[in-house]
Amino acid sequence: MKSEKITKCPECGNADLIRDYEAGELVCEGCGMVISSTLFDHGPEWRAFDEEQREKRTRVGAPLTWTIHDKGLSTIIDWHDRDVYGRKLKPDQKARVYRLRKWHRRSKVSGATERNLAFALSELTKVAYKLNLPKNVLETASVIYRKVVRKRLIRGRSIQGVAAASIYMACRQCNIIRTLEEVAAAAHISKKEGGRNYRFLLRKLETRVPPVDPTSYISKFVNQLTLSGETESIAMQILGQAMELRLTSGRGPAGIAAAATYIASLLTDERRTQGEIAKGAHVTEVTIRNRYKELTQKLNIELDM
DNA sequence: AAGACGAAAGTGGTTGA
DNA sequence: TCAACAACTTTCGTCTT
């Protein structure tokens, strides 16, 4: 995915773009249009201002990353003392390559686990790409996966399963809303298996994953349904009151957030149907109705229509 | 005709004996 | 290991706009 750098909004021409790394989106400040929901930066982390710099810097290879099994060192080393054009290397270059090769050899502990890790990390990358996840989530997931490997917990589990669980856990830690279902689908496994693996990781890694903050759902829904900022803040208020009244504990956060969004959309006259919201929230209309009934009752919300 | 509403039965996961 | 349980879903009939 080598897209050129977008500097202006194609919709209104506004140059003030907001990079929302939390949601992994590129948003125009002028018209609010979400230009791209992929904020991956696949290029190197440096800029070259002239040819000489480019010449020097291209030799560093791809940026260092946790998502390649040996953190990106693998591709640049082979056993010929020749460059890409087949020419012999100069002595100083030769010395460099020797050093690199030494470390490269050392970093390859065992063939089997390394191959396994390499495959798994490419799997992680694929899944993250499908889900439009920002880079930091992918990196987090990679770190999680490495931890799993180090603790020798993969035995008896599919790579896909553990990869999906790692991604899901990373999403939760980075506060990026993706349902278990979405992650599982992207990894081509069932929701059930994804859940099993996730719980397994949760138990074995003893990582504290905070429960999902329902407020982050709201912004997701508002975005999806193209509602106004006013609606969003009202939904937030409703949600805040609901949390104070402990209406949120024990319930699926998505349902509550969806109901709050629904009510807000009614209050601001930006009516959306229950079905529309339900679809985006991955809950049914019935659940929204139940939460909606609860919220209007307990919070004494007047809906004059 | 579409959306909202609610009852009833079913599902998958958690909990506690 | 099993049954009870809560949350949520599916389905379907009825009412409202």
For CATH, the homologous superfamily of the largest domain is named as Cyclin-like
Percent of residues in helices: 40-55%
The order of strands across the largest sheet is 1-2-3
What's the oligomerization state? single chain
Outline the fold blueprint.
Blueprint: E1 17-20, E2 25-28, E3 34-36, H1 51-57, H2 91-107, H3 111-130, H4 135-150, H5 159-173, H6 180-186, H7 191-205, H8 214-224, H9 229-244, H10 253-267, H11 274-281, H12 285-298
Antiparallel strand pairs: 1-2, 2-3
Helix pairs in contact: 3-4, 3-5, 4-5, 5-6, 5-7, 6-7, 8-9, 8-10, 9-10, 10-11, 10-12, 11-12
This protein binds a DNA duplex (17 and 17 nucleotides) through helix 12.
Please summarize what this structure is.
The chain has 305 residues and is mainly α. Helices cover 53% and strands 4% of the residues.
Explain how this protein is built.
The protein is mainly alpha-helical. It folds into 4 domains: 3-36, N-terminal domain of TfIIb, CATH 2.20.25.10; 70-108; 113-205, Cyclin-like (Cyclin A, domain 1), CATH 1.10.472; 215-298, Cyclin A, domain 1. It has 12 helices and 3 strands; from the N terminus they run E-E-E-H-H-H-H-H-H-H-H-H-H-H-H. It has helices at 51-57, 91-107, 111-130, 135-150, 159-173, 180-186, 191-205, 214-224, 229-244, 253-267, 274-281, 285-298; strands spanning 17-20, 25-28, 34-36. A 3-stranded antiparallel β-sheet has the order 1-2-3, with no helix packed on it. The longest helix has 20 residues, at 111-130. It starts with 16 loop residues before the first strand and ends in a 7-residue tail after the last helix. Mean pLDDT is 72; it is low at 1-5 and 37-62. The chain binds a DNA duplex (17 and 17 nucleotides) through residues 192, 195, 250-252, 255, 273-275, 283-287, 289-290, 293.
